[in-house]
Amino acid sequence: MKALIQRVNKASVSVNGDITGRISRGLVALIGVGKDDGETDARYLADKTAQLRIFADSDGKFNLSAIDISGGILVVSQFTLMAYTAKGRRPSFTDAAPPQQAEELINQYISCLKETGLKVQTGVFQAYMQVEIHNDGPVTIMLDSKDSKRK
Length: 151
What we know:
It is built from 2 helices and 8 strands; from the N terminus they run E-E-E-H-E-E-E-H-E-E. The chain is of the alpha/beta class and about 150 residues long.
């Protein structure tokens, strides 16, 4: 699984003009699920997301997490994060999980985030969404659950 994390001042997601999720200060997590991913990947990414220290403390250092600042998290499914682009000009999505598996693991990720006490908002799985992001910094970090298996 991959998560593109963006620190935001505010963000929202809408489907057909209706807002389905909105947060103020916190994180936007764009989530891609691979066909080889499982519950361990979802839990690892949720833990990393919630505890990632990318908010400034009183000295201006990245020492605070979304939990520390009582921030919100807006989770948006994004299968395009699994794109393979090494060959040709059109991305291939053959490494992306099938929809049922992806939805299940994104829901697992969301459940794990909620266990931390964070306020979690979401988009709509497989919907065409409009995402409004007011990136703070900008600070954008890519997380990959495969990193948990590296030494």
